[in-house]
Amino acid sequence: MAFVQRANVVLEIKDDQVERFLDQGYDVIDEAGNILQKSVPQDIGTLRKAYVEHIEEIKQLKGQIKKLQSSKSPSSRKSTTKKEQ
Residue 83 falls within a domain, yes or no? Predict the structure, then answer.
Protein backbone atom coordinates (compact mmCIF):
# COMPACT_ATOMS: atom_id res chain seq x y z
CA MET A 1 0.00 0.00 0.00
CA ALA A 2 1.10 3.54 -0.69
CA PHE A 3 0.01 6.95 0.56
CA VAL A 4 -0.68 9.85 -1.80
CA GLN A 5 -1.50 13.47 -1.04
CA ARG A 6 -2.92 16.41 -2.96
CA ALA A 7 -3.55 19.60 -1.00
CA ASN A 8 -5.02 18.38 2.32
CA VAL A 9 -6.36 15.06 0.96
CA VAL A 10 -4.39 11.93 1.90
CA LEU A 11 -5.35 8.57 0.41
CA GLU A 12 -4.06 5.05 0.92
CA ILE A 13 -3.94 3.27 -2.43
CA LYS A 14 -2.66 0.03 -3.93
CA ASP A 15 0.91 0.09 -5.27
CA ASP A 16 -0.25 -0.55 -8.83
CA GLN A 17 -2.32 2.69 -8.75
CA VAL A 18 0.58 5.02 -7.92
CA GLU A 19 1.28 6.12 -11.53
CA ARG A 20 -2.38 6.97 -12.11
CA PHE A 21 -2.49 9.16 -9.00
CA LEU A 22 0.83 10.85 -9.89
CA ASP A 23 -0.73 11.78 -13.24
CA GLN A 24 -3.69 13.28 -11.39
CA GLY A 25 -1.48 15.59 -9.32
CA TYR A 26 -1.00 13.56 -6.14
CA ASP A 27 2.40 13.28 -4.45
CA VAL A 28 3.55 9.95 -2.99
CA ILE A 29 4.27 10.34 0.72
CA ASP A 30 5.42 8.18 3.62
CA GLU A 31 3.57 7.70 6.93
CA ALA A 32 5.23 10.82 8.37
CA GLY A 33 4.05 12.98 5.46
CA ASN A 34 7.44 13.35 3.77
CA ILE A 35 7.24 13.53 -0.01
CA LEU A 36 8.82 10.49 -1.65
CA GLN A 37 7.85 11.29 -5.25
CA LYS A 38 6.43 14.54 -6.59
CA SER A 39 3.74 14.66 -9.20
CA VAL A 40 3.88 16.78 -12.33
CA PRO A 41 2.42 20.21 -11.45
CA GLN A 42 -1.11 20.64 -12.73
CA ASP A 43 -1.53 24.43 -12.69
CA ILE A 44 0.09 26.98 -14.99
CA GLY A 45 1.50 29.13 -12.18
CA THR A 46 3.48 26.25 -10.69
CA LEU A 47 4.67 25.14 -14.12
CA ARG A 48 5.84 28.68 -14.95
CA LYS A 49 7.72 28.96 -11.66
CA ALA A 50 9.44 25.60 -12.25
CA TYR A 51 10.28 26.65 -15.83
CA VAL A 52 11.90 29.91 -14.70
CA GLU A 53 13.88 28.08 -11.99
CA HIS A 54 15.15 25.53 -14.48
CA ILE A 55 16.13 28.21 -17.03
CA GLU A 56 18.12 30.06 -14.35
CA GLU A 57 19.85 26.84 -13.31
CA ILE A 58 20.74 26.09 -16.93
CA LYS A 59 22.22 29.59 -17.34
CA GLN A 60 24.34 29.12 -14.22
CA LEU A 61 25.56 25.71 -15.33
CA LYS A 62 26.44 27.03 -18.81
CA GLY A 63 28.42 29.83 -17.15
CA GLN A 64 30.29 27.30 -15.02
CA ILE A 65 31.04 25.19 -18.11
CA LYS A 66 32.44 28.21 -19.98
CA LYS A 67 34.53 29.16 -16.95
CA LEU A 68 35.94 25.65 -16.66
CA GLN A 69 36.64 25.43 -20.39
CA SER A 70 38.44 28.78 -20.43
CA SER A 71 40.56 27.92 -17.39
CA LYS A 72 41.55 24.57 -18.88
CA SER A 73 45.11 24.67 -20.18
CA PRO A 74 45.59 23.38 -23.70
CA SER A 75 46.91 19.85 -23.59
CA SER A 76 50.21 19.30 -25.23
CA ARG A 77 50.09 16.10 -27.20
CA LYS A 78 53.10 14.52 -28.74
CA SER A 79 52.90 13.16 -32.20
CA THR A 80 52.69 9.38 -32.21
CA THR A 81 53.30 8.91 -35.90
CA LYS A 82 56.46 7.05 -36.83
CA LYS A 83 58.84 8.33 -39.44
CA GLU A 84 59.27 5.97 -42.31
CA GLN A 85 62.84 5.01 -43.06
Answer: no
